[in-house]
Amino acid sequence: RTQLPLSPEKPSEKCGVLNVTKITENGKKVRKNWTSSWTVLQGSSLLFAKGQGGSTSSWKFGSNQSKPEFTVDLRGSSVDWASRDKSSKKHVIELKTRRGTELLIQSEIDSVINDWYRALNETISAHAWE
Ligand code: I3S
Question: N or C terminus: fewer CB in 10 A for the chain?
């Protein structure tokens, strides 16, 4: 049987460095501000911390100085590939939350962004009835 990296019955954690910007907050358009963020998918939450010069090894949530910058509740969110008018960058995911926040999430590495696309969709499906 095919081994899925992330199966809905066993929601695992996933983390890595992604480029992230908000484009809408609580339904209001905000100015783009792309930042490199250490990103953690944990249960139905997506957590972002400001990147530390791209270094991933020194970052762990749970240690003292690593409070997430912001957290997104994935329950009721939707994920799609961003259309061309949303960004000129390649490999951009658009994430819309139930509360009217829209984020763009991007990586230059297409295998990385494809894994995140799949993981986010599986997480949203796994929590669809909450
Ligand atoms: O959607 P926009 O306004 O073309 O987004 C670009 C801007 O946010 C730009 O910054 P300023 O115009 O605020 O200086 C960013 O540097 C670009 O990266 C944004 O566009 P992309 O296409 O990279 O998402």
Answer: N
**Residue to probe by mutation, ligand 1, list 18, 30, 32, 34, most atoms within 8 Å of CB:** 32
Contact (Cβ atoms closer than 8 angstroms) between residue 28 and residue 7: no
Report the pLDDT value the prediction gives residue 23, as an integer from 0 to 100: 97
DSSP-based three-state secondary structure for 15 = strand
Atom of ligand 1 nearest to the CA of 88: 22
Return the structure tokens found at 107: 């990586």
Cα gap 5→92, rounded to integer Å: 21
Q: Return the pLDDT at 68.
A: 73
Predicted model pTM: 0.82
Q: Which atom of ligand 1 is nearest to the CA of 104?
A: 24
What are the DSSP E strand ranges found in the chain?
Answer: 14-25, 28-29, 35-42, 45-50, 70-73, 78-81, 92-96, 102-106
Contact yes or no for 104/81 (Cβ under 8 A): no
Token readout for 8 is 């809905």
Which helix (H) or strand (E) covers residue 73, if one does?
strand 70-73
Distance 125 CA to ligand 1 centre (A): 31
